[in-house]
Amino acid sequence: MTATRIDGKAIAAALREKIAVEGKKLIDETGVVPGIAVVIVGEDPASKVYVASKGKAANECHFKSVEHALPADTSEDTLLSLVGELNEDDSIHGILVQLPLPDHIDESKVLELIRPDKDVDGFHPINVGLLTAGAKDKAMVPCTPAGSLILAKRSLGDLSGKSAVVVGRSNIVGKPMAALLLAESCTVTIAHSRTKDLPSVVKAADIVVAAVGRPQMIKGDWIKDGACVIDVGINRIPAPERGEGKTRLVGDVDYDGAAEHAGFITPVPGGVGPMTIALLMANTLTSARRAAGLEDLDYAALLG
Ligand SMILES: NC(=O)C1=CN([C@@H]2O[C@H](COP(=O)(O)OP(=O)(O)OC[C@H]3O[C@@H](n4cnc5c(N)ncnc54)[C@H](OP(=O)(O)O)[C@@H]3O)[C@@H](O)[C@H]2O)C=CC1
Ligand SMILES: Nc1nc(=O)c2c([nH]1)NC[C@@H]1CN(c3ccc(C(=O)N[C@@H](CCC(=O)O)C(=O)O)cc3)C=[N+]21
């Protein structure tokens, strides 16, 4: 079998277009301009690329977008007071503090200070609690898992009763992904670095979500025939074939090997990554609409 490649880049572009239309409508009808603030501490080049693409997407969607780039030695207190100001700023509906933070800053302190209704990453304990308690419609749902779920549902349709394996148990991807799949009535297994016999755990799954951070770790012959493979991993590896010192991005899955078995598979780049950015815009619009007293939109339905 040769898998169908899931074009996350195109689906994300289509979603951003729908959000732009809805963003414009909100502005024209209520005067509320959705606003997003992205805070980055330090100089990590990869993080800067993500922050730039968030700003670009926000402009496309007619949102107000502000970026706070702070030096790596910024104190925890300075960061906390910036978050406090953004919490109070009525023109800002979404606050994203880029992770990871430098070691001298307590990440949980920062995430817990972000007002839950402005927490477009969905990392605040209130939002985590709503999602795991089965009340995701009231929550802000983390962007990467939400985008991954849209891709899986567009490929397989109803996920009810399917077996899903999430490889990775981080708070930002693995755990919320598992909660979303459970809410779709999948039978969910969460695998991690202590899992025994990972290849056979993966082999049992109709849906495989890889969020490990290890280049091409998941091999083609681990994949069940016809499975849907969602590769969240973003890993930069040397690419001497492109010239000396060059690099390229690969996922956590051996794409070519897995494509021989899978029914559907996301590429890296061009898969989950662009969906993450689109869902960040979706969450910002949701927050702005809630602030204007409007109902939530169903973004999967909007995509058609
Ligand atoms: N596309 C996108 O939009 C995004 C992509 N990413 C990418 O996704 C990947 C994962 O990110 P994140 O969740 O933050 O990563 P973390 O490093 O926080 O978590 C990695 C997880 O993988 C598990 N793991 C590590 N080694 C193995 C192994 N050999 N076998 C099985 N499990 C293993 C770890 O297990 P344990 O808990 O036991 O240590 C851990 O739970 C990264 O490549 C990251 O860059 C992240 C966010 C967004
Ligand atoms: N608070 C917080 N929220 C996040 O959502 C968050 C974060 N911190 N820290 C870092 C990770 C990583 N992440 C990505 C987003 C988009 C792409 C993306 O668009 N990738 C492109 C390629 C980009 C490139 O070429 O480098 C693609 O996959 O096609 C990747 C990774 C969000 N993260």
Give an account of the 3D structure.
- This protein has 304 residues and is of the alpha/beta class.
- It folds into 2 domains: 31-115, 3-Layer(aba) Sandwich (Rossmann fold), CATH 3.40.50.10860; 143-274, NAD(P)-binding Rossmann-like Domain (Rossmann fold, 3-Layer(aba) Sandwich), CATH 3.40.50.
- The protein contains 11 helices and 11 strands.
- It has helices at 8-30, 45-60, 76-88, 107-113, 125-132, 143-156, 174-183, 198-203, 255-259, 272-291, 299-303, and strands spanning 4-5, 35-41, 64-70, 94-97, 163-167, 187-191, 207-210, 228-231, 235-238, 247-250, 264-265.
- Strands 1-11-8-7-5-6 form a 6-stranded parallel sheet. A 3-stranded parallel sheet has the order 3-2-4, with helices on both faces.
- A hairpin with an 8-residue loop joins strand 9 (235-238) and strand 10.
- Helix 6 crosses helix 7 and helix 6 packs across helix 10.
- The longest helix is centred in the N-terminal third of the chain and has 23 residues, at 8-30.
- The two termini are 27 Å apart.
- The mean pLDDT is 97.
- Catalyzes the oxidation of 5,10-methylenetetrahydrofolate to 5,10-methenyltetrahydrofolate and then the hydrolysis of 5,10-methenyltetrahydrofolate to 10-formyltetrahydrofolate.
- InterPro entries: Aminoacid_DH-like_N_sf (IPR046346), NAD(P)-bd_dom_sf (IPR036291), THF_DH/CycHdrlase (IPR000672), THF_DH/CycHdrlase_cat_dom (IPR020630), THF_DH/CycHdrlase_CS (IPR020867), THF_DH/CycHdrlase_NAD-bd_dom (IPR020631).
- It catalyses: (6R)-5,10-methylene-5,6,7,8-tetrahydrofolate + NADP(+) = (6R)-5,10-methenyltetrahydrofolate + NADPH; (6R)-5,10-methenyltetrahydrofolate + H2O = (6R)-10-formyltetrahydrofolate + H(+).
